[in-house]
Amino acid sequence: MPHENTTPYANTAPHETKSPAAPAAAAGRWHVGGDLPVNRMGFGAMRLPGRTWEGPAGDPEAAVAVLRRAVELGVDHIDTAAFYFYEELSANAFIRQALHPYPDDLVIATKVGPDRSPDHDWLDAAGPEKLKADVHRNLRQLGVDRLDLVYLRFLAADGPGDGRFEALAALREEGLIRHLGVSNATAAQLAEAQRIAPVAAVQNRYSPVSRDAESDALVELCARQGIAFVPFFPLGGAGAPHVAALRRVAERHGASAAQVGLAWSLSVSPAVLAIPGTSSLAHLEENVAAAALSLDAEDLAVLGAA
Questions:
Q1: Most buried among 62, 64, 181, 244, using CB within 10 Å?
Q2: 102 assigned to active site
Q3: Can you give the pTM of this predicted structure?
């Protein structure tokens, strides 16, 4: 039955901290779907199997070490997908190897919609039956009975129609998915999905060097409705971007441009959750430390001009 998600998710304590000693907790917390509290600084697993979609292959030992260190630093929100793989290396497999049995408070989000062939070619957007199969694929790969959060990622102008979001909503009703999200979505596509089932999170491209009025408005809409907004490519998509404004603010704080970019994202709204990805322990430590970086009005004005 269609569901009009007009009541915002409760997020009564978005700034609640898990532990002062956990660096990932420094930016506060958010309750995904109203009932899954996570530190706002999380981790994205896309880069673990390979440096890019075409390789080179990642280091399995380093991938496992990064995941375990992330959890030690207080990361309790990991973003992944079954199509995050390179040759025989898989982000989901690394997560299971490093962290299973999972801590009770660990939230693992995955996404379906796109897929790749074993030769790494991108395939057509999945239909309802393929989406269901991909949910079961994630369940098997991660070794869980229920997925905490599943995004339907849209390709270009497609959306939740043609039974696609309904298929995921049915799996949610069966208890295989706890919360649903949408990715690469417009405000209209979000509203269309909400007419089918509640939406707990939106994952879109967003950063100080990749934003516009429409994306700013969507962040505000999500905050009003208690929906998490989770930027992908929070650093612009190619590591720390070479932008003068970012460098200038970074110099003021003795920080890196990447840290400033992450701190900016977290400063935009308490609904924003950061999921920077890396296969390097040093970069992981640097990214997580950005949770404690506070930007003042002058910093934000400089970055807004960027």
A1: 181
A2: no
A3: 0.92
